[in-house]
Amino acid sequence: GGGGLGGPGEQPTMQSGGLAMPRWSFTLGPGGRGLDGLTAQEKEASDAFGRESAEKVKAAMTHAWRGYKAHAWGRDELKPVSGRGADPWGGIGCTLVDSLDTLWLMGMRAEFEEAKGWVRDHLEFDRTPGAVSVFETTIRELGGLLAAFDLSGDALFLDKALDLGHRLMRAFDTPSGIPYGSVEIGGRAAGGGRGHNAAWTGNAAVLAELGTLQLDFRYLSEMSGDPKFAKAVNRVLDLLVAKSPPRGLYPIYVRTSDAGFATRQVTLGALGDSFYEYLLKVWVQGGLEEERYRDAYDRAMDGVVSTLLQASTPSKLAYVADWDGNGLNHKMDHLVCFLGGVLALGAHAAKGGPAGSDRARRDLEVGRALTKTCFEMYERQASGVAPEWVQFQAGRDFRPGPGGNFNILRPEAIEAIFVLHQLTGDPEYRRMGRRMFDALERHCRTAVAYGGLRDVTHTHQAPEDRMESFFLAETLKYHYLLQAPVEEHGVDLLRSKVLNTEAHPLSIFGSLRFEELKEIARKGRGQPRRSAA
Predict the structure, then answer these.
(1) CB 179 within 8 A of CB 167
(2) H-run or E-run covering 114
(3) Rounded distance, CA 297 to CA 278, Å?
């Protein structure tokens, strides 16, 4: 296999005591004042604006949920223009399950109870036809069930999650333990469904997929008392971390036969993104104790800064280029926008906080700068809605990439804005989020829900006939969590919850709520107390 970032490439830049530092000054965007920099009046005014905005987001969720209930109840997706249901994820009620925690957090308890009734009476996995995506089913369905359990304390959701978890475990039956990308989950839970990788990946596993199962499977082990789930996913992460690739950056294809890399391509966009997110978040989930994951994350961020991080001209907008094996490709997926939030979280969760080290200061600044760029991806389009990816050009900053001028209601930019607002307290992030929400409302709303756009550079067009479950699970949830004060929703990123890559909040191991939930789960099993370790 290829060796990732071998060859000359871009050399690491000026060092601060051995730490890679950016070679440019960037346009930073808000977030420099810190939570203590606000007066009581400023905080009050920002919270009032936030509450008013949060009500608008809740109204959007109510609109889409009514459409889903009327036209696609229990189906994987609602088609927002034709008003029909569709089942692209195996007929597992994906939109309903993915939305459970959004309903709960927005205080839509009657709708939550009604959805719970569907889960209780109709959610069965033994009739799921064919193979499902292990990654998508884990982050949307398993994560949705676990977060519903975490918030409500109702063991019904844990029971359904456990059944699904057993079925998904079949994917790990490979020579190396690196899971297949797809697996059959139908039939009896104990039965043996087959797994495989897609032909388009050259039968290799995808980095972002195999590295984005850990939060949900580890949590399932803790709550079920069955260590096999955590063991399988920790082994995958440990295998990869032990490879210590050049500059800490991992190629996107991994062979299931021997866990070797099958390419030299590196990206923090599609196929790579959430692997890096989980290096940090698995460390956060475990109570900041598993240092090997934090170390691998730090090495990767050094590699990003020394090798992939660039500044546009003329506006000095920070962006993260792709590495195609031989050099840089100056494009950035909207998906990369998650990184601004992750960098800020890593800086704040580090020992000593964001001011405690050169590394933390660097990461917070880069996170702020990237998030500013992502906001500009919205602001600079006629519709106020961002394209799927952009190409950077000397002297012109960026343009929508060829064939990439569509939008599918993705969450990553508003995710980073939510995280940065919660951690820095800067009211400007709420105003940015509100502008993005208003554009969505203006251009993406249909009679029954919301749809993406075919071309974000135009203002006169009907939305597309697709609404992914992540629009309700992530995009609207992040808009709401940004605007509603944290005291009112309780999703505290440093003290109580870690969010999976589908925005499903799970209690951090060892937290008060986590211990309460373990007790509920144990009583549900009728077992004496024991550790899942």
Answers:
(1) no
(2) helix 109-122
(3) 9
Alpha carbon distance 36, 142 (integer Å): 38
Whether 405 contacts 326, CB under 8 Å: no
Q: Decide: pTM greater than 0.85.
A: yes
506 touches 500 (CB < 8 A): yes
Question: Looking at residue 438, what DSSP letter applies?
Answer: H
Measured CA to CA in angstroms, residue 142 lies from 164, 167, 352 at distances of: 7, 11, 34
Average pLDDT over residues 56-65: 98
**Residue 412 annotated to the active site:** yes
From 101, 184, 216, 273, the catalytic residue: 273
Predicted pLDDT at 1: 38
Provide DSSP, 250-289.
--SEE-TTT--B----B-SSTTTHHHHHHHHHHHHHTTS-
Q: The dihedral of CA 346, 243, 338, 25: what is its sign? A: positive
Q: Which two tokens stand for residue 326?
A: 């031989």
Residue showing tokens 């190409």: 391
Q: Enter the DSSP assignment of 104.
A: H
Strand-strand pairing, 195-196 and 205-206: unpaired
136 catalytic? Reply is: yes
Average pLDDT over residues 340-361: 96
Q: Is the peptide bond before 314 cis (omega within 30 degrees of 0)?
A: yes
Q: Which of 77, 388, 397, 426 is catalytic?
A: 388
Tens-place pLDDT, residues 17-40: 578 898 878 888 887 766 677 889
* 295 tagged catalytic: no
